[in-house]
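Lab manual, section 2.4: Encoding a predicted structure.

Procedure: take the sequence of the chain (374 residues), apply the prediction step described in section 2.3, and record the output as structure tokens. A sample record is shown.
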Amino acid sequence: MTTFDRHIIARFLSATTLLVGLLIVFFVVLDYLEYIDDFLDRGATMREVFGTYYLNYIPEIVRLTSPLAIFLAAIYVTGRLAQSMQLVALLASGVSLVRIMVPFVFVGVLLTGFMFWFNGWIVPRTNGTVIEFQNQYYKKAPAQSETSQIHRQNRPGSILSVGFFDRRTEQAYRVSLQDFEDADGTPGAERLARRLDAESMQWIDSLGVWRMRGVTARTFGSPDADSLGTSHAAYEKVSEMDTVLQVLPRDLARTERDAERLTIPETRDYLDALRRAGADQLGRPLVGYYGKFSYPIANLILVVIGVAMASVRRRGGQAVQFGIGLFIAFVYLALQKLSEPFGYAEAVPPILVAWVPHALFAVFAVALVWQVRR
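Recorded output:
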């Protein structure tokens, strides 16, 4: 790595850090001005607002703004090289634009890898606190979870019904677990084979089991032809019992924002649980899941676009460069947001919704570099 590379990397990283910091301040101030009435009306203290909410909101802001910050930093550093004629001198001495882009791409790859880890494991943890705070203090709170009259498929032929679920304490009330079998005894839908009714059910995280209380267990035998098709039933009452279910606490309190508070492995398990439970609307969580992989790529793509675009001197200097850059970044990020509803409704496969905008702009980046080289 040459002195020139180290110089570019240092300037690029410092510009990116400065822009991320400025965008964080901008977003916090804008958000605070928008929701200050909600905070005051609902009794949130300044310590809670800034020490809990915004402190945990910063990682999400970094996730959202990192592509824009790194893009503007690439335009700024490259534009400064172009305006000071250093870029012209390098190109005139036989150094190709691709070689000049190496330190920028190096930083872009590092930041893309970092943001993949940051988006996939760090941001979900802090988002959980942010969402809970918004639910408590926003007048127009994000969509709440369904907490009453819940029905989930535990496994094929097994249905769990819950009258009410308290997400905070992870306790369910008025619980019924019904197992159905076919005539040959395999799980099916022909007849009710077993039924557990419980007054309440508490999740025991250390054991990974549900602890049922006030349980009434019934087992139904196969219909007896001699008794006019009636079936024999065994009846038992138990004060408390532990049972292992494939339904977990998060499966009983779903919201459309669940993917925001789950890490990549947790989101994958969550989607498996949804499929197992027979859920038929997976568009939103799938878009969120694939977005955890695709969104960090925007950092690298915008670096390439920014360097290629700013390497050409234009009338108006960097002000024009920044204007064009902001327009391109707006179109890029807006295309991602505008395409998401199609993935939510599954009118377009969610994986395409997550990746196509990046693929289109990756092609645009390559074409732009090719044109500038000529």
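Check your result against the sample. Residues 21 and 139 are 29 Å apart (CA to CA).
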